[in-house]
Amino acid sequence: MPSPVQPIFPALYLYPLNDSFIPKHIFLAHGQRVKIGRQTNAKTAPGERNGYFDSKVLSRQHAEVWEEAGKQKIFIKDVKSSNGTFINGDRLSPEGLESDPNELRNDDIVEFGIDIVGDDNKTIIHHKVAARVVCVFTEQDSKSINTHPNSRPPSQPQDPLSTQQQAAVPHPHPLLPSHSSSDAHSSLNKA
Fold first, then answer.
1. Which one of 5, 112, 172, 175 is separated from 87 by 20 to 30 angstroms, measured CA to CA?
2. Residues 11, 136: contact at Cβ < 8 Å?
3. For 182, left (φ over 0), alpha (ψ -120 to 50), or beta?
4. Is 37 exposed, middle or buried (0-12, 13-18, 19+ CB in 10 A)?
C-alpha cells in the first residue's frame, strides 16, 4: 500500500476531463511561476507534480500559473501559445500574444490547446488538455479533497448568488464543445 502523500500548498490541482493526463497536484511555492507546456525532453517529462503534458496541441512554453503571495489567489496567463489557453470556454489571448493574468477558481474548466480533427471533420487526431480546477491554500482545503481517481473533489463555496443569479450562470460541464481547429492545423507544432 502506498504511503499517504504529504499535503502541499498552496497548490493547483488539475483533474482531467478527457483522460489526456493523470491528475496533477502542482505546488506553487512563494510566488514562483510554474510553466505549463509540452514535453520536449527527459527534463520535461510529465508528472503528477509538474506542469508538463504529453500533448501535441500544447506549445513548449504554453502558460504560467502562480499563487499571489499571501492573497490565496491562483493566476494563469497564456505565454504566446499557438493553440490557446481557455477558462470556461473563453480564450485568454489571440494566437501568439501573451494574455493578462486571469484568476483561477475552484471548478473552473481550463483547457490548453484545442482538439485537432482529421480530414473527415469527426475524428480527433490530437486531444486538447481539459481539466477541472481545484485551488488548495490550506491544510483544511487539502483534507477536504477526496483524491480517489473516480470521485469528484468537493467544490469550495464562492460568492453567494441569489437563486435568480444562479439560474443565469451556466455551470461548467465536462462535455464542453470542442473548439474549431481550422486555425490550428498550421500552428500545431509552432512555439
1. 5
2. yes
3. alpha
4. buried
Secondary structure of residue 135 in the 3-state scheme: strand
**Using one digit for the tens of pLDDT, what is the confidence trace for 33-44?**
999 999 999 999
Find, among 42, 36, 49, the residue nearest to 75 by Cα: 36
Tell whether the model's pLDDT for residue 155 goes beyond 50: no
Q: Report the C-alpha gap between 149 and 16 in whole angstroms.
A: 10
Answer whether 0.70 is exceeded by the pTM: yes
Query: In this structure, are strands 52-53 and 63-68 parallel, antiparallel, or unpaired?
Result: unpaired
Instruction: Name residue, grid cell 482531467.
Output: 16
Closest CA to 11 of 50, 55, 37: 50
pLDDT digits (tens, 9 = 90+) for 63-88: 999 999 878 999 999 999 999 999 99
